[in-house]
Amino acid sequence: MTWQHFLTVGAEDSTTDAQCLLGETGWTLHRSNRLPSRLFNWLNGEDIPDRAREILAMQPRFAEASGLIRVPSERENLCGIREVWVLARTTSGLASIVVCDAEDSLEAQFHRRIALAKEQALRYFARQALLLVQSQAPTDNMTEFAKFSAIQGHPDPVGDRIYSMPSENSIALSYVWLGPLT
Length: 182
Prior knowledge:
It contains 4 helices and 9 strands. It is α/β, with parallel strands linked by helices.
């Protein structure tokens, strides 16, 4: 028996054309008529997307990152996925990564998401916890991310750079704004 390299838990089955209720309108929309999730590459690839792996490899502790488990953890109104938790293997041990869509994310949500990454790191004995904010376009607004970064002591953040946060419970905390994957 051959196991999948990257185990996906709780994802929607893409082979069915399930209906999705559009708010309280009573209208439904079939999956075949919806746009793909903005985190499609994180949910359907064989591994962590190549561009993300390149950025992660800039920090030795995230070198050779390889996905083990991914779980969609937050869904949006149109049945899309706005957040994915990933347990990854790196050369320095396990890493807990929360990937979120940059669009419409607020500073308070970044605090909740880094807390989720840390909580899962404790649960799975990972040595690193990372918040990865996935941008879809070079013009995505970084205002809320910049507010979060300033609180962490890094004013004027730039994309594709991993920033460190004070460690807690021997877990190294980090965050990054990742530019478009394509």
